[in-house]
Amino acid sequence: MRKNMTIKVTRAPELFPAYEVTKDGKKWGYINRNGRFVLKPQFDEANDFQENGLAIVTVKGRAGMIDHLGQFVIQPIYSQVMPFTEGRAIVMDDAGFKVINERGQEITTKAYSLIQPYQEQRAIFSGTNSGGKYLYGYLDEQGNEVMPLQYENAFDFTGGKALVQLRENEFALIARNGKILQTYPFAIMMGYSEGLIPFKKTFNDKWGYVDEQGQIVLSPQYAIAMAFQDGRAVVNMSDDMYNQYGLINKLGKFFIPPTYNDIRQLKEQRVAVGIATNPDQPYVGSTYGIADTAGHILTEFMYDQVGIYKEGLSSVTIDQSTFFIDESGNPAESYPVIPGVGTLDLEGRLIQAHVDHSLSYYDRSGRSVYQPNTNFPLNADYRIQIEKYSPNKDYLVYYPQIEGMQNEEAQRRVNGILKQQSKVIQVPDDVQLDYSYYGDFLVSFFKKNLFVLKLAGYNYPFGAAHGMPFQTYVHIDLKTGTNYELKDLFKPGSDYVKIVSDIIQKQIEEEETQGFTFYFLDQYKGIQPDQTFYVTEDALAIYFEPYEIAAYAAGFPTFIIPYQEIMKIINTNGAFWGAFKE
Predict the structure, then answer these.
(1) Fold observed for domain 496-580
(2) Domain DUF3298, which positions (predicted)?
(3) Fewest Cβ atoms closer than 10 Å to its Cβ: which of 350, 466, 491, 541?
């Protein structure tokens, strides 16, 4: 008689990305649902595990994928790895974009300028043809060019069809084999969805909608017209900054009238409807209420941020609190309210909280399962305490405070400098700012008694095309508490300003001959005596602010000068040099 046998099926454990702050920056690993590290912090970056059991991680600037044991299934050889879609992932190396399968095999035979994730067994790719024109095509699941470079623009497939631009003033709807189903004589069209396509006859016209046959269904009348989702589309009737957003059906009937500063579709038959926080400055943002797609406003206008609904829940914020709401738009029962501004996601039995630019985990009752450390050692003598300053929902700074200096008065003075240089300033807690600011820090260099901190931030004026980055380096002698300046590196009386300026001038000229043309050559007049700088083990780095001598895209133009080039003027007997050199 054959005995009954039980086959044991082993499931991969639930693991969640988490990090530990160290003097070398954040090191990522994976915790279990009890908050204990199963894969120790060792990666520079780590992402959630995907449904195929793989997670994207980064080591020394190179990305790959690991399994639940922490073993590399896809080696970290890429500069970028995107999540898998339809069993394929887009990767990028020094040659360009490629496609790999779940075994890590490259299925494309060459690299491309760009490949977008797969949708309905097709991936948009782009590049320059033999005539030097930048065009688009589609790859199939095997990485073959099922539709070679031929389109001036291309959109993802939906329902077996995709919109492409053939040439100026001509678009087409194509099938998955590339067959043209219909052409359209318009200047601009957006993605096909639910049988309708937003269009403009000319660049100066308003938006309307056509059907698949090119018949105008909704005449041009909208300043903005978005794609349909579940039979509804968001449109804006206003041409100026005073928005008039509404929600229409396919007949053009307004289910939500065009009177709002913003409307966002949230899936699951819900939308966020926003009124201007400041009516005179609508670009500052909106305060949202929740409505259904039939046009019923379900809540008061009270939410600062609203996320997409998933399984009946949406992550929202009010002031400096983050929590879930249910389909009625009210706080979801039995779920916690997390202090801070951010988003929540359900990950298995845990709540993953990306709040105040930090990652933490809670169980569904609100009990803390994991919080990142707020204190880390530099060595056996010194530690860094991470302090948080968040007086307003739009102002957040993490700043360092040093512990362990023998001279307590010097330590208080140094910590005061670090706090001030980190932009911990008086900010009202009950006023809507017209900008947001986020600041953080990292240890740039630490040797002997010299501690170099990079304090960085980003100021974004609401409504602006982009914000303004901030950075400064603080050079602290942990023995004396001295905050060194550039002049302290050089011999007294030496003309370091001219010597360093000339070296930088030469570097600029050399870069210009190599095609780097983002410098404003007429604006470089040399460095200042108190020029922004930082030191490393082997070199002096001089940097400039954005726009100071180069275009914004250049960031902080930085010039590295090896010490051997300027050794004649370095004060090797001075306190600054002696703080980190033997």
Answers:
(1) Actin; Chain A, domain 4 (3.90.640)
(2) 487-564
(3) 466
